[in-house]
Amino acid sequence: MTRIITLEGTFNTRDIGGILNKEGKCICYNRMIRSDALNKITIQDVEYLKHLGLKTIVDFRGKQEVIKAPDIKIEGVKEINLSPNAEVANLASGNIVDDQQKIDALIKISSTQEGRLQLKARSDEMSEQMRELVNSSYANKQYTSFINLLTDENNLPLLHHCKGGKDRTGFATIITLFILDVSLEKVKEEYMLTKECMASRNEKRMNEYRQYTNDPFVLEYLSGLMQTKEVYFDAAIDEMIKLAGSIPNYLEKYLDVTLEKKEKIKQIFLSK
Protein backbone atom coordinates (compact mmCIF):
# COMPACT_ATOMS: atom_id res chain seq x y z
CA MET A 1 0.00 0.00 0.00
CA THR A 2 1.44 3.38 -1.02
CA ARG A 3 1.70 6.19 1.49
CA ILE A 4 1.33 8.89 -1.19
CA ILE A 5 -2.26 10.13 -1.57
CA THR A 6 -2.96 11.63 -5.00
CA LEU A 7 -5.55 14.39 -4.81
CA GLU A 8 -6.40 16.72 -7.68
CA GLY A 9 -6.07 19.85 -5.57
CA THR A 10 -2.92 19.11 -3.52
CA PHE A 11 0.69 18.19 -4.29
CA ASN A 12 2.10 16.93 -0.98
CA THR A 13 -0.41 14.63 0.69
CA ARG A 14 0.55 11.34 2.30
CA ASP A 15 -0.41 8.91 5.04
CA ILE A 16 2.11 8.29 7.81
CA GLY A 17 0.94 4.68 7.93
CA GLY A 18 3.29 1.88 6.91
CA ILE A 19 6.37 3.13 8.76
CA LEU A 20 8.00 0.63 11.11
CA ASN A 21 9.18 1.73 14.54
CA LYS A 22 12.24 0.49 16.44
CA GLU A 23 10.24 -2.39 17.91
CA GLY A 24 9.23 -3.57 14.43
CA LYS A 25 5.64 -2.43 14.87
CA CYS A 26 3.92 -0.80 11.91
CA ILE A 27 2.05 2.51 12.05
CA CYS A 28 -1.53 1.87 10.96
CA TYR A 29 -2.86 3.53 7.83
CA ASN A 30 -5.73 6.03 7.99
CA ARG A 31 -4.83 7.42 11.39
CA MET A 32 -2.94 10.57 10.40
CA ILE A 33 -2.45 12.27 7.02
CA ARG A 34 -0.11 15.16 6.31
CA SER A 35 -0.79 17.57 3.48
CA ASP A 36 -0.44 20.98 1.91
CA ALA A 37 -3.42 23.35 2.12
CA LEU A 38 -6.91 22.25 1.12
CA ASN A 39 -8.01 25.51 -0.54
CA LYS A 40 -7.91 23.99 -4.04
CA ILE A 41 -9.31 20.52 -3.47
CA THR A 42 -11.98 19.36 -5.91
CA ILE A 43 -15.38 17.75 -5.37
CA GLN A 44 -13.71 14.40 -6.09
CA ASP A 45 -11.06 15.14 -3.44
CA VAL A 46 -13.73 15.99 -0.89
CA GLU A 47 -15.51 12.72 -1.63
CA TYR A 48 -12.25 10.80 -1.28
CA LEU A 49 -11.51 12.34 2.13
CA LYS A 50 -15.08 11.72 3.27
CA HIS A 51 -14.72 8.10 2.18
CA LEU A 52 -11.65 7.83 4.43
CA GLY A 53 -13.88 8.86 7.31
CA LEU A 54 -11.84 12.00 8.02
CA LYS A 55 -12.88 13.54 11.35
CA THR A 56 -10.41 16.34 12.08
CA ILE A 57 -8.39 18.87 10.08
CA VAL A 58 -5.61 20.76 11.87
CA ASP A 59 -4.46 23.90 10.03
CA PHE A 60 -1.06 25.27 11.08
CA ARG A 61 -1.32 28.37 8.85
CA GLY A 62 -1.47 31.87 10.24
CA LYS A 63 -4.63 34.00 10.26
CA GLN A 64 -3.78 35.98 7.11
CA GLU A 65 -2.85 32.82 5.20
CA VAL A 66 -6.22 31.32 6.08
CA ILE A 67 -8.11 34.49 5.08
CA LYS A 68 -6.34 34.59 1.69
CA ALA A 69 -6.89 30.93 0.92
CA PRO A 70 -9.50 29.28 3.16
CA ASP A 71 -9.76 25.50 3.09
CA ILE A 72 -12.63 23.96 1.17
CA LYS A 73 -15.16 22.82 3.77
CA ILE A 74 -15.80 19.11 4.26
CA GLU A 75 -19.13 18.40 5.86
CA GLY A 76 -18.92 16.77 9.28
CA VAL A 77 -15.16 17.37 9.69
CA LYS A 78 -13.96 19.38 12.69
CA GLU A 79 -11.47 22.18 11.82
CA ILE A 80 -8.86 23.37 14.32
CA ASN A 81 -6.31 26.14 13.80
CA LEU A 82 -3.01 25.75 15.68
CA SER A 83 -0.73 28.29 14.03
CA PRO A 84 2.74 28.30 15.62
CA ASN A 85 3.37 31.85 14.28
CA ALA A 86 6.10 30.75 11.85
CA GLU A 87 6.75 33.87 9.78
CA VAL A 88 9.52 32.46 7.58
CA ALA A 89 7.44 29.40 6.71
CA ASN A 90 4.60 31.76 5.88
CA LEU A 91 6.88 33.70 3.50
CA ALA A 92 8.17 30.49 1.94
CA SER A 93 4.67 29.37 1.13
CA GLY A 94 3.37 32.56 -0.45
CA ASN A 95 1.11 32.52 -3.50
CA ILE A 96 0.87 34.23 -6.87
CA VAL A 97 -1.50 36.85 -5.41
CA ASP A 98 1.16 38.39 -3.15
CA ASP A 99 4.26 37.46 -5.22
CA GLN A 100 4.68 40.95 -6.69
CA GLN A 101 4.78 42.65 -3.30
CA LYS A 102 7.14 40.05 -1.87
CA ILE A 103 9.54 40.16 -4.81
CA ASP A 104 9.52 43.97 -5.02
CA ALA A 105 10.70 44.06 -1.40
CA LEU A 106 13.44 41.49 -2.08
CA ILE A 107 14.61 43.33 -5.24
CA LYS A 108 14.94 46.50 -3.17
CA ILE A 109 17.12 44.63 -0.67
CA SER A 110 19.19 43.13 -3.50
CA SER A 111 19.86 46.52 -5.09
CA THR A 112 22.79 47.24 -2.76
CA GLN A 113 25.92 45.28 -1.91
CA GLU A 114 24.90 45.29 1.74
CA GLY A 115 21.47 43.97 0.81
CA ARG A 116 22.90 41.17 -1.32
CA LEU A 117 25.09 40.10 1.57
CA GLN A 118 22.01 40.20 3.79
CA LEU A 119 20.10 37.88 1.44
CA LYS A 120 23.02 35.46 1.39
CA ALA A 121 23.19 35.57 5.19
CA ARG A 122 19.45 34.87 5.30
CA SER A 123 19.78 31.77 3.11
CA ASP A 124 19.71 29.62 6.26
CA GLU A 125 16.54 31.25 7.62
CA MET A 126 14.54 28.05 7.37
CA SER A 127 16.97 26.29 9.70
CA GLU A 128 16.37 29.06 12.21
CA GLN A 129 12.63 28.73 11.64
CA MET A 130 12.82 25.03 12.49
CA ARG A 131 14.74 25.88 15.67
CA GLU A 132 12.00 28.35 16.60
CA LEU A 133 9.33 25.69 16.13
CA VAL A 134 11.30 23.68 18.70
CA ASN A 135 12.10 26.41 21.23
CA SER A 136 9.23 28.93 21.02
CA SER A 137 6.93 28.64 24.02
CA TYR A 138 3.98 29.70 21.85
CA ALA A 139 4.76 27.03 19.24
CA ASN A 140 5.22 24.49 22.06
CA LYS A 141 1.65 25.16 23.22
CA GLN A 142 0.25 24.68 19.71
CA TYR A 143 2.09 21.40 19.15
CA THR A 144 1.14 20.18 22.63
CA SER A 145 -2.50 20.77 21.68
CA PHE A 146 -1.88 18.82 18.47
CA ILE A 147 -0.41 15.89 20.38
CA ASN A 148 -3.36 15.89 22.77
CA LEU A 149 -5.70 15.42 19.80
CA LEU A 150 -3.85 12.21 18.92
CA THR A 151 -4.66 10.66 22.29
CA ASP A 152 -8.38 10.47 21.46
CA GLU A 153 -9.39 8.01 18.75
CA ASN A 154 -12.58 10.02 18.20
CA ASN A 155 -10.44 12.70 16.50
CA LEU A 156 -9.07 10.24 13.94
CA PRO A 157 -8.48 10.01 11.05
CA LEU A 158 -6.81 13.41 11.34
CA LEU A 159 -5.31 15.46 8.51
CA HIS A 160 -2.83 18.22 9.37
CA HIS A 161 -1.46 20.81 7.00
CA CYS A 162 0.04 24.25 6.56
CA LYS A 163 0.47 25.92 3.13
CA GLY A 164 3.02 23.65 1.46
CA GLY A 165 3.00 20.85 4.01
CA LYS A 166 6.74 21.11 4.50
CA ASP A 167 7.88 22.84 7.71
CA ARG A 168 5.07 23.43 10.19
CA THR A 169 3.36 20.23 9.07
CA GLY A 170 6.71 18.46 8.85
CA PHE A 171 7.50 19.29 12.46
CA ALA A 172 4.15 17.91 13.64
CA THR A 173 4.94 14.67 11.82
CA ILE A 174 8.46 14.55 13.25
CA ILE A 175 7.28 14.73 16.86
CA THR A 176 4.49 12.23 16.23
CA LEU A 177 6.93 9.69 14.81
CA PHE A 178 9.28 10.17 17.75
CA ILE A 179 6.39 9.54 20.15
CA LEU A 180 5.76 6.31 18.23
CA ASP A 181 9.42 5.30 18.72
CA VAL A 182 10.41 5.54 15.06
CA SER A 183 14.18 5.74 14.56
CA LEU A 184 15.88 9.05 13.80
CA GLU A 185 16.94 7.71 10.41
CA LYS A 186 13.38 6.81 9.40
CA VAL A 187 11.95 10.08 10.74
CA LYS A 188 14.46 11.97 8.60
CA GLU A 189 13.65 9.80 5.59
CA GLU A 190 9.96 10.65 5.98
CA TYR A 191 10.76 14.37 6.27
CA MET A 192 12.88 14.26 3.11
CA LEU A 193 10.11 12.56 1.12
CA THR A 194 8.60 16.05 0.85
CA LYS A 195 11.46 16.96 -1.51
CA GLU A 196 10.22 14.37 -3.99
CA CYS A 197 6.56 15.28 -3.53
CA MET A 198 7.17 19.00 -4.05
CA ALA A 199 9.71 18.90 -6.90
CA SER A 200 7.32 19.76 -9.74
CA ARG A 201 5.42 22.29 -7.64
CA ASN A 202 8.65 24.07 -6.68
CA GLU A 203 9.76 24.30 -10.31
CA LYS A 204 6.39 25.77 -11.21
CA ARG A 205 6.72 28.36 -8.43
CA MET A 206 10.23 29.30 -9.54
CA ASN A 207 8.95 29.84 -13.09
CA GLU A 208 6.28 32.13 -11.65
CA TYR A 209 8.92 34.05 -9.71
CA ARG A 210 11.01 34.40 -12.88
CA GLN A 211 8.11 36.28 -14.46
CA TYR A 212 8.79 39.06 -11.94
CA THR A 213 12.59 39.08 -11.72
CA ASN A 214 15.79 37.54 -13.03
CA ASP A 215 17.79 38.78 -10.03
CA PRO A 216 19.93 35.75 -9.09
CA PHE A 217 20.20 36.75 -5.41
CA VAL A 218 16.41 37.02 -5.06
CA LEU A 219 15.76 33.78 -6.96
CA GLU A 220 18.37 31.88 -4.96
CA TYR A 221 16.86 33.12 -1.71
CA LEU A 222 13.31 32.16 -2.72
CA SER A 223 14.45 28.76 -3.96
CA GLY A 224 16.18 28.08 -0.65
CA LEU A 225 12.99 28.78 1.30
CA MET A 226 11.03 26.26 -0.75
CA GLN A 227 13.57 23.46 -0.59
CA THR A 228 13.37 20.48 1.74
CA LYS A 229 16.90 20.17 3.09
CA GLU A 230 18.49 17.81 5.57
CA VAL A 231 20.03 20.79 7.37
CA TYR A 232 16.52 22.02 8.25
CA PHE A 233 15.68 18.68 9.86
CA ASP A 234 19.09 18.55 11.55
CA ALA A 235 18.57 22.05 13.00
CA ALA A 236 15.34 20.94 14.69
CA ILE A 237 16.96 17.84 16.19
CA ASP A 238 20.00 19.80 17.32
CA GLU A 239 17.75 22.33 19.06
CA MET A 240 15.80 19.59 20.84
CA ILE A 241 19.00 18.07 22.20
CA LYS A 242 20.43 21.47 23.11
CA LEU A 243 17.31 22.31 25.12
CA ALA A 244 16.65 18.99 26.83
CA GLY A 245 19.64 16.69 26.35
CA SER A 246 17.68 14.13 24.33
CA ILE A 247 14.62 13.84 22.11
CA PRO A 248 12.53 11.93 24.71
CA ASN A 249 13.36 14.58 27.32
CA TYR A 250 12.35 17.32 24.89
CA LEU A 251 8.99 15.66 24.20
CA GLU A 252 8.32 15.32 27.91
CA LYS A 253 9.55 18.73 29.12
CA TYR A 254 8.44 20.98 26.26
CA LEU A 255 5.45 19.17 24.72
CA ASP A 256 4.05 17.50 27.83
CA VAL A 257 4.37 13.99 26.39
CA THR A 258 3.79 11.99 29.55
CA LEU A 259 4.29 8.23 29.64
CA GLU A 260 0.51 7.86 29.76
CA LYS A 261 0.03 9.98 26.61
CA LYS A 262 2.83 8.19 24.80
CA GLU A 263 1.39 4.76 25.54
CA LYS A 264 -2.10 5.88 24.55
CA ILE A 265 -0.89 7.21 21.18
CA LYS A 266 1.14 4.05 20.56
CA GLN A 267 -1.90 1.96 21.38
CA ILE A 268 -4.02 3.90 18.87
CA PHE A 269 -1.46 4.20 16.06
CA LEU A 270 0.57 0.97 16.10
CA SER A 271 -0.43 -2.43 14.79
CA LYS A 272 -1.12 -5.02 17.46
Automatic annotation (TrEMBL):
PROSITE patterns: TYR_PHOSPHATASE_2
MF-aspect GO terms: phosphoprotein phosphatase activity
Residues covered by the Tyrosine specific protein phosphatases domain: 144-206
SUPFAM superfamilies assigned: (Phosphotyrosine protein) phosphatases II
Any matching Pfam family: Y_phosphatase3
Recorded family membership: Belongs to the protein-tyrosine phosphatase family.
InterPro entries assigned to the protein according to its UniProt record, in alphabetical order: Prot-tyrosine_phosphatase-like (IPR029021), Tyr/Ser_Pase_IphP-type (IPR026893), Tyr_Pase_dom (IPR000387)
Name the record gives this protein: Tyrosine specific protein phosphatases domain-containing protein
Domain of life assignment: Bacteria
